[in-house]
Amino acid sequence: MATTTRRITRPIIGGLTAAGVIAGALLAGAPAAVAETALQPGAEPTIHTQEAFDPEGDFTSRWTRADAMQLKRISDPDAGSRENSMPESVTMPTIPQDFPDMSNGEVWVWDTWPLTDEAGNQYSVDGQEIIFSLVADRSLGFDERHQYAKIGYFSRPAGIPADERPENGGWTYGGLVFDEGVTGTIFPDQSYSHQTQWSGSARVFKGGEIKLFFTDVAFYRNPDGTNIKPYDPRIALSVGKVHVNKAKGVFFTGFDTVTDLLQADGTYYQTGEQNEFFNFRDPFTFEDPAHPGETYMVFEGNSAMDRDGARCTAEDLGYREGDPYAETVDEVNASGATYQIGNIGLAKAKNKELTEWEFLPPILSANCVTDQTERPQFVIQDGKYYLFTISHRGTFAAGLDGPEGVYGFVGDGIRSDFQPLNWGSGLALGNPTNLNFAGGQPFAPDYNQHPGHFQAYSHYVMPGGLVQSFIDTIGTHDDFVRGGTLGPTVKIDLDGVSSAVDYSYGDGGLGGWADIPANLDVNKGGVLQ
């Protein structure tokens, strides 16, 4: 029987999240019974209670090294060259190389998020579905896109089944949200070499007003790419209004000013002075049904320690007493793992306009586990809060390894002692990956790696358990293609401390290309319904 869900996300975008609460949506399909898998010898995962705490309290859950060690324990040590070593139940089906381009060659596309309300419902406007994406001009190399990213938007008619749409999803690219120069005005130092926009989220209100939360970024670099000073990322807000008519299609007014909301504080969230390579981005706002009238924001951060002085504790390692496979704190701190200290942050709005915010302690730390906890989001189902984030294989700390993809945790509230999903590993949806071999880089995959190793990233979980992501690189060392468009939508089912890919969805688990369906509409009178 289907179960009623609510979802808090992101930011799903780099953003996306970047990145609400899925209210009244159905997570249909069979229970997510994770197939049994042979665990390799290794440390046992940390014991987590899932207990909830006051959102404004100071408890921070830990994704520990003991937890992350389970990723190697569930990997098949006998998987050969170019084979997948991870369990099929948590592996995204392989995407074919002959994928369609949703922008028809106009722009590179990556982190993407829909138009949502405070509960994560995805809206069409007068019959038009709308999404926001990070985009860059195709004259740039695909790997140059990050420092030139802008927020663009796409639209398409709502209510058409995926198998009746054009192969590329049927989207029309509408252009950029901001005029040139608008987002650069908030930086006191105007000497930046590059000014860009990274992932966020878009909240719709009555009358078609949109509050666009995003990461506003300024780089200060020399011509050779070295830093003159650390880059300056700020969580920001711009307000506009969406319109639909036959002559112009979907278009916006407003988005001509930007409000600076949050900058990393150095107390909970690492700053550029503490580490020039810090992460602070991907805002998504939501209302928690357990705390009516309060609006919260989740985002990616790093634990506030100096880069060269960072140290991890026994609690960060999380080994059970007497575990013969346990590392020592001194071993981990000497390994270089202290450079990976990602966390998931929380903030609370101080006014109804959502223009003033205060930091709260992070809800999850990943000290000595991974450096990136991008586009965090929650799914609330059967009274449980499922926290999801995305991470790269290359950002795991020394001594750890895991696929590119979605990692998930379950607890009883937005601040909980979160238990990692699936054998205690945290892996919820990974790319096909062989942990017996190196990964290489998206522009140069390792010879022995599975062709799907870099196929998808920047996942966003939608109503009904649908998951969308963008295509990065598909293929082997001697035969690969780069992406820059959204991939096929897949579906995951949640069941207690497990998740599983629904291989009955679409064609062997792969649904429509760039399929991001709305479940509610803003009608011509501007009423949310």
From TrEMBL:
**Any signal peptide, and if so, which residues?**
1-35
CDD domains the UniProt entry points to: GH68 (cd08997)
Keyword Hydrolase in the entry? The reply is yes
Molecular function GO labels? hydrolase activity
> What is any Pfam family matched here?
Glyco_hydro_68
**Keywords from the UniProt entry:** Hydrolase, Signal
Organism domain of life: Bacteria
**Entry's family note:** Belongs to the glycosyl hydrolase 68 family.
> What is the protein name given in its UniProt record?
Glycoside hydrolase family 68 protein
